[in-house]
């Protein structure tokens, strides 16, 4: 079943201006002004301007009179569309093979077969919104069974993410206002004059009178929202994208036939990549069905490749997901993400040590769920929880190393857990401690190792310290615990004890 994500960027125009000039104060209200002849009105307003009572459509002169210090910038629809196109291309490379612009302030994606690479729909949507926020863009995202429903939900709520379970679209969209149907403003006004207020009101009305007065668009939008009529997404494609197509005079559907033609496309793709000195990191197979719907499969690799057999294996593992329906009329294969891959001469020495390549294993596991595969690498920080970062499985070494003066536990807890301790202050190790309801007597201990706070990052850590101890209990289990503070001055910490790691 198709799953569509609609991303709504409510303040794209003002966010674009702020991104272009980061020196603009956040607290300064900002409005984008459109004009037609002598008329000037607000086309977009940021959060600060909206809090002052401004709204889209308000005359510019009235807005300037209401808000002192309002910064007004002329609208630039061309620049806004270019920014939206760049964001759409970025989403294409990160989230789904089928991504398109939804002008003037949205992006639409068919994520069927691709959400598992992001850890599921909930993690995908929350991560998507957070990444937009990290780029200085306000965003709301909704996922539903149809484009019309997802588009309406993203724009009809203040929640950052909305997920409508499969098959429940009809029961949810009925409560939405008429403005969510993507109809012209004049049509919406006319329907309201007739007493219609919600989508459910319109859905319960016979079509013939509506079509006679407003034309066929009202019925079409309703059918698209409820999934009775397909609304295919025409995916965006960058100018330099390497993409191959195979069309069929007669629709195909047999598994062996699909595999045969996909294999030919993969072989042609690898030849094209070889001519350009490139390798593929992400390849997308798009299946065009005769009922005007599409299905997409995405295969990713940890490093650039152009091995026909290996790419076919990655796709073959997911062929069972293909649903031919009434038949497939076209196959498209695109190299969405490529990197340089020069020819490498094989080693001439017969006795040279051969290093085990774990890339194939990473590729197989990564295509089952991309969020699960990573490496840990050191960060230049003495604070333990800040000294570790996740990096891609095949990323280059970061160049930093962990401290070697004191041992570090192989297992570091996600966050330190409070423990009850009996100990002499200020420098003695615990005589015993209680963790998760179990009391443990300390037989051996080493420490303290004093770690100072990073005052240049947070003023609250100006005098903060931790004293770490490695302790061993009566059964030989070893733990990494610390006291917050130096044991004397309360300004250095609370003097509470915590367990932070476990030794093997």
TrEMBL record:
Q: Which SUPFAM superfamilies match?
A: DNA/RNA polymerases
Q: Which organism is it from?
A: Ciceribacter ferrooxidans
Lineage: superkingdom: Bacteria
One GO BP on record is: DNA repair
Q: What reactions does this protein catalyze?
A: DNA(n) + a 2'-deoxyribonucleoside 5'-triphosphate = DNA(n+1) + diphosphate
Q: How does it associate, per the subunit comment?
A: Monomer.
List, for all copies, the residue spans of the domain called UmuC: 18-150
UniProt GO molecular function: damaged DNA binding
Describe the function of this protein.
Answer: Poorly processive, error-prone DNA polymerase involved in untargeted mutagenesis. Copies undamaged DNA at stalled replication forks, which arise in vivo from mismatched or misaligned primer ends. These misaligned primers can be extended by PolIV. Exhibits no 3'-5' exonuclease (proofreading) activity. May be involved in translesional synthesis, in conjunction with the beta clamp from PolIII.
Recall the taxonomic lineage recorded for the source organism.
Answer: Bacteria, Pseudomonadati, Pseudomonadota, Alphaproteobacteria, Hyphomicrobiales
Recorded hits in InterPro entries, A to Z, give: DNA/RNA_pol_sf (IPR043502), DNA_pol_Y-fam_little_finger (IPR017961), SulA_CellDiv_inhibitor (IPR050356), UmuC (IPR001126)
EC assignment: the record states 2.7.7.7
Enzyme class, broadest EC rank? transferase
In this protein, which residues make up the domain named DNA polymerase Y-family little finger?
A: 246-343
Q: Which PANTHER family match?
A: BLR3025 PROTEIN, BLR3025 PROTEIN-RELATED
What are the entry keywords?
A: DNA damage
One of the Pfam families matching this protein, by short name: IMS
Which cofactors, if any, are listed as required? Answer: Mg(2+)
Q: What is this protein called?
A: DNA-directed DNA polymerase
């Amino acid at each position: 079943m198709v799953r569509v994500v609609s991303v709504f960027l409510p303040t794209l125009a003002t966010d674009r201006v702020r991104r272009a000039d980061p020196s603009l104060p956040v607290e300064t209200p900002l409005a984008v002004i459109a004009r037609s002849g002598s008329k000037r009105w607000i086309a977009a307003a940021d959060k600060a301007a909206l809090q002052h009572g401004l709204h889209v459509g308000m005359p510019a002169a009235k807005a300037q009179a209401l808000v002192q210090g309002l910064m007004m910038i002329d609208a630039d629809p061309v620049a806004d569309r270019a920014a939206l196109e760049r964001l759409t291309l970025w989403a294409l490379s990160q989230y789904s093979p089928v991504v398109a612009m939804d002008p003037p302030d949205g992006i639409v994606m068919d994520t069927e077969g691709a959400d598992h690479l992001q850890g599921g729909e909930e993690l995908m949507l929350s991560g998507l919104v957070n990444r937009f926020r990290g780029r200085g863009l306000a965003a709301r995202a909704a996922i539903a069974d149809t484009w019309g429903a997802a588009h309406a939900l993203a724009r009809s709520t203040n929640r950052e993410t909305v997920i409508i379970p499969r098959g429940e679209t009809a029961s949810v969209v009925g409560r939405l206002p008429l403005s969510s149907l993507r109809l012209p403003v004049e049509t919406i006004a006319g329907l309201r004059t007739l007493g219609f207020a919600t989508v459910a009101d319109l859905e319960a009305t016979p079509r013939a009178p509506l079509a006679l007065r407003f034309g066929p668009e009202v019925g079409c939008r309703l059918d698209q929202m409820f999934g009775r009529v397909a609304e295919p997404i025409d995916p965006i494609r960058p100018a330099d994208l390497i993409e191959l197509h195979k069309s069929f005079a007669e629709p195909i559907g047999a598994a062996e036939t699909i595999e045969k033609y996909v294999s030919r496309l993969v072989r042609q793709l690898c030849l094209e990549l070889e001519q350009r000195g490139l390798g593929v990191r992400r390849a997308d197979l798009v299946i065009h069905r005769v009922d005007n719907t599409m299905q997409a499969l995405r295969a990713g690799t940890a490093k650039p490749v152009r091995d026909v057999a290996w790419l076919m294996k990655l796709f073959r593992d997911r062929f069972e997901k293909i649903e031919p329906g009434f038949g497939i009329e076209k196959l498209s294969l695109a190299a969405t993400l490529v990197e340089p891959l020069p020819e490498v001469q094989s080693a001439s020495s017969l006795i040279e040590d051969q290093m085990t390549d774990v890339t194939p294993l990473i590729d197989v596991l990564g295509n089952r769920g991309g969020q699960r595969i990573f490496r840990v690498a050191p960060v230049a920080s003495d604070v333990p929880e800040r000294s570790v970062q996740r990096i891609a499985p095949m990323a280059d070494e970061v160049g930093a190393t962990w401290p070697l003066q004191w041992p570090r536990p192989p297992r570091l807890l996600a966050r330190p857990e409070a423990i009850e301790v009996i100990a002499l202050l200020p420098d003695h190790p615990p005589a015993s401690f209680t963790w998760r309801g179990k009391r443990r007597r300390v037989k051996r201990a080493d420490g303290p190792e004093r770690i100072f706070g990073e005052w240049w990052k947070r003023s609250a850590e100006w005098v903060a310290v931790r004293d770490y101890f490695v302790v061993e209990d009566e059964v030989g289990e070893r733990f990494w615990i610390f006291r917050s503070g130096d044991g004397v001055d309360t300004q250095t910490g609370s003097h509470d004890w915590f367990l932070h790691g476990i030794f093997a």
